[in-house]
Amino acid sequence: MGSVEDRFGVTTVLRAPSAVAARPRLGGASWPDEPRRGRKKRQTRDALIDAALDLFEAKGYEHTAVREITDAVDVAERTFFRYFANKEDIALFFVRREMDQFVDALGARPARETPLTAVRNAFRQTLEQIQADSYLRNGEPRYLAVIKLIDSTPALLAASLRFIYDNGDKGVDVLAERENVDPGSDKRPWLLIAIYGAVMALVHRDWRTHGQGGAEAMLALFDAYADQLAPTIAGRWRPSVG
C-alpha cells in the first residue's frame, strides 16, 4: 500500500481490493460464509466505493474522474464498469439497497399493523439492518457518510430523488397487496409512499444540518415527523380561541 499526490495536491491512498475485508461490521458479526469468488467481488466493490468516497470528500464529486477511483484501487477501468454504470451509480447503490430492504421489510410486517405503522416499523428495521451490515470509515458508519454526500451534492441528490420517484411503485405494490386494494383505482398506497419519501428527505436534511449523530438520531427525527402526520393532515393548526 502506498500513496500518490495528483495535480490538485490531493493525496490518495492506494489499497488492494482485499483491504476492506478486515473491517468489522458495526453489528459485531463477521460476514457469513460465502464462496471465494463472491467474497472477492464484494471486496473489490467495497474498495471502489471507499476510494470514491475518499476522493469525493477530498476533491468534490464533480472533480473526481472514474480513472482516479480505479487508480486508487489499482484496478482497470473496465473492472469499475463491471460494478457501476458511472460514478453516480456508486451513491445510487446505497439508495437502491435501502429501497430493496425497505420493500422486503414492509412486505414482512404483520397484517395487524396499520399501513402507517407498517411503514414506520419497516423503516426502523431497514435502518437497523443497514447499520448492522455497515462498517466504520473515518470514524463513522459508511452509510451515514453516503447520506451526507448525497444530501450535500446537488447532482447526486437529484439522481437519488429521480430513482426514488421512478421506483416508488415497488412500495405501492406491497402496500396494496397487504391491504387488499387495487393501486390502479385506490390512491392511498401512492399517497402514503409519497409521504414516506417526503419525510425521508426532511429527515436527511435535518440530520445533516443539526448535529447529525448516529442511526438513533435519524430514527428519532423520523418518529418526530411521523407523529405529526395525522395532526397535520386532519387537524387544525391555529391555536384554539377562547
Structural class: mainly alpha
Global shape: globular
Give me the number of helical elements. Answer: 11
- How large, in whole angstroms, is the Cα Rg? 20 Å
Which CATH class of the largest domain is shown?
Mainly Alpha
Give the quaternary arrangement of the chains: single chain
Can you describe this structure?
The chain folds into 2 domains: 2-83, Arc Repressor Mutant, subunit A (Orthogonal Bundle); 88-234, Tetracycline Repressor, domain 2 (Orthogonal Bundle). α5 runs antiparallel to α10, α8 (169-179) crosses α9 and α9 packs across α10. The protein is mainly alpha-helical and 242 residues long. It has helices at residues 36-59, 66-73, 77-83, 88-108, 115-133, 142-152, 154-167, 169-179, 188-209, 215-227, 229-234, and strands at residues 2-5, 11-14, 136-137, 140-141. The protein contains 11 helices and 4 strands, in the order ββαααααββαααααα. β3 and β4 (140-141) form a beta hairpin.
Outline:
By secondary structure, this protein is mainly alpha-helical. Helix content is 64%, strand content 5%. Helix 1 crosses helix 6 and helix 4 (88-108) packs parallel to helix 8.
